[in-house]
Amino acid sequence: MANQPHASGHMMPLQPPWLEPVRQQLVRRGRGGRLPSGILISGSPGIGKALLTTSVVQSLLCQRSSGDEPGCGDCNACRSLEGGVHPEVRLLEPAEPGKDILVDAVRDAAEFLTLSGSAGTLRALVIRPADSLNLNAANALLKTLEEPPAGASLFLEAARPASLPATIRSRCQQVDIASPTINEVHDWLAADTDQPERVAEAYAASLNRPLLAREILTDAAALEAWETDRQILTNLLDASNLHSSAAALQRSVPERLFPRLQALLLSAQRLLLVGQLDAFGEQFPRTQLLDFARARGARRLAWLAQQSLEWQRQNSANLSPALRSEAIALALGRR
Ligand SMILES: [Zn+2]
Question: Among 10, 150, 259, 292, which residue's Cβ finds the most Cβ atoms within 10 Å?
Fold first, then answer.
């Protein structure tokens, strides 16, 4: 990771550029004692919700930074934050990944917020992810959001903010992180890899999610997963053999493949209608993609793109993988 000098003289990691405007804005509000008591940070998985929360909290608790500077990364406060032991910060997360956050955990965290902290400092509760609060837990949280203790701020991170009760959403200020363009993230991604020539590919493969792109660039398993998916999708484009398509689908990891399949179908549609490849489509042979698009037509491609979301949902339903793969291969095939 590239470094940049901090006012304290300490070298710190390059700040994620697409998060900078909102980070600075929240930090300035925090310094002025005007941080909302509920901040709902939304955006796709891998877009940097946790990174934003962490850097806002760090800026505000750092013993050296001032103004809207990022935390120094070196003082006691920054170090205890990094170690997850800062006394003014509590992380509320499911006991196991993918499980709900339960009401007892919320009550416990709400009590932490009422304990008297050092005057004038931020006391932060980070809920990661907030869309895993079950209904009772969300209701228990509501009281704290309605009457927050002085100095307390709740950071709710959610990929699916619409799944939160409206009563929770209406008591938070919503900060939505949109997908940055490749130009906005290129240097940040390139600083982290010895293969800067693959940045554009990784970003396309991540479907414009910077943290996932960084994983593809730095983690051999994530790169291999992308290469596997690209191979499967290339097979599907060919689609001359129903059985090999179905077999390829069955080997795939659906929650990873289907969003990429949808991106490929949208690329094919765009190529057909506008004659241009987007960044995701550029990862596939143009002639093959164009042949695939022509054989199906724009309307069918739009329907298939919509359908790919449905296939992803069905993945959690109790259907036979073999039958499902065959039905999908059939739908994608030539008519
Ligand atoms: Zn610091």
Answer: 292
Distance from residue 322's CA to the centre of ligand 1 (Å) = 54
CA of 233 to the centre of ligand 1 (A): 46
- Tell me, what's the pLDDT at 321? 79
Residue 195 lies in a domain: no
Is 190:196 a contact under the CB 8 Å cutoff?
Answer: yes
In a domain, 194, yes or no: no
CATH code for position 320: 1.20.272
Look at residue 326 and tell me if it is in a domain: yes
* Span from the CA of 150 to the centroid of ligand 1 (angstroms): 23
Distance of CA 224 to the CA centre of its chain: 20
**Ligand 1 geometric centre to CA of 72 (Å):** 4
| Per-residue pLDDT band at 1 (split at 50, 70, 90) | very low
Residues 170 and 66 reside in one and the same domain: yes
Distance 31 CA to ligand 1 centre (A): 15
Same domain, 22 and 153: yes
Confirm if 165 and 190 have CB atoms less than 8 A apart.
no
pTM for the predicted model, two decimal places? 0.87
Mean pLDDT of 108-130: 86
Ligand 1 midpoint to CA 203 (Å): 31
